[in-house]
Amino acid sequence: MPHRSVVVRQAWSGRLSRCASIVVMDVAIAPTIEDRPGLSGLAPDALVAWLAERGEPAYRARQIGDAVWGGTVVSIEHAAPLPVGLRQQLAEAFRFDTLAQTELRVTDGDLTEKALHRLGDGALIESVLMHYPARAGSRERYTLCISSQAGCAVGCPFCATGELGFGRDLQTAEIVDQVRSTTRRLVAEGRRLTNIVFMGMGEPLLNLDRVLEAIAALNDPRRFGLGARHITVSTSGVVPGIRRLTALGPQFTLAVSLHAARDPLRDVLVPLNRRWPVADVVAAARDHAGATGRRISYEVTMIAGVNDTAADAEAMVELLRGDHAHVNLIPMNPVAHTPWTASPMPVIERFAAMLRAAGIETTIRRNRGQEVGAACGQLAAEHAGEPPAPAVARRRARLVAESAAALLGERSHHPAPVGVGE
Ligand code: SAH
Ligand code: SF4
User: Fold this and answer.
1) Under DSSP, is residue 346 helix (H, G, I), strand (E, B) or coil?
2) Which of 128, 159, 266 is the pocket-test mutation for ligand 1 (most atoms within 8 Å of CB)?
3) CATH 1.10.150-classified regions of the chain
4) 152 neighbors 66 (Cβ within 8 angstroms)
5) pLDDT tens-digit profile of 292-322?
6) Which atom of ligand 2 is nearest to 201's Cα?
7) Is domain 99-407 classified as CATH 3.20.20.70?
């Protein structure tokens, strides 16, 4: 489908955003509800079979692959080495790009680009490109954070995606097309993507089949060709998914969103904990580290007065002591409709010092892209509109009450969120 680019400068006045930003619209002309499969999601043998059915030689698959993954071709109609008739057949059977529309917001002095993508059925997802310039001891990096679902069923209350609820699973092509869209921009500037993290919208291990297909495409030297060690999958703690990954043995990095080491508090912060308690999550992660030899990353979003106390640090030390693990402490990004704010830096530093004193490797991370609605889900939430004020007030009061009860050691009586599978 042909694209046109519209570049608009505007002063952004969203709910949480105060920055002047550049908005670039990469619009597929005449977006309609689409059910043609995405070409980039087709496995290589399926593409060869499709070509064979039409009497086309197998080497056409490589030419199509170059067009799909090369980062310079914007539509299959422009894939020069292919015969015109085959281009037409491909265009009729497949979408070259499953992202019908992309809106970009740039911030952090151009170091962070946040993209809101509209899919063929109108669903909204987000991806974020973070540029880390070269420093002494580390090379320049371009890390892309991608989504695996539209919305999320887990419902973590500090997460904008969690508040949106579950929309649907992404198809393989919709996952990898976030990477292809960014690659097209980077290639045009003579740059390339160095890292991919599944830390956008959604819980990757609840869409694991499609996520594994996407990783296979991103990892395959004949397709995107990014080394597995440059790919990170983050989970809120889907134990059967972690165990399945361990059995498969892939070499990508597993990150676990821990947030709290004590069940009562983790029940509130990560409602999935009511189904798979924290000790089971860490046991599965430990087995994964043992089987793959890869260190587990634990992510902790630091929330003032909620999970940043000395008691929380002590509980985390008890849980992780002696593990092949690395803890990342990240100040909570401001999100609407929570009663919470980020822990102050001295509190985060004290927490880090307690973990390090117990021999647990710990890094304090800076959050990126705050002015454009930092953590994924916020741009989509703006489009969803503001919920009624009484509902927001009730949500805030419930979170205050639940976290206060958790701090006294009470486990949540709410059931686990629906739709998170077994
Ligand atoms: N669902 C997966 C992956 C997507 S969320 C998971 O939870 O791991 C990616 C990361 O962003 C998670 O570690 C999540 O806890 C974190 N996150 C979500 N909202 C945040 C916020 N407001 N501030 C900081 N981190 C946040
Ligand atoms: Fe879902 Fe991850 Fe957000 Fe929790 S933090 S609601 S698991 S996307």
Assistant:
1) helix
2) 159
3) 43-93
4) no
5) 999 999 999 999 999 999 999 999 999 999 9
6) 8
7) yes
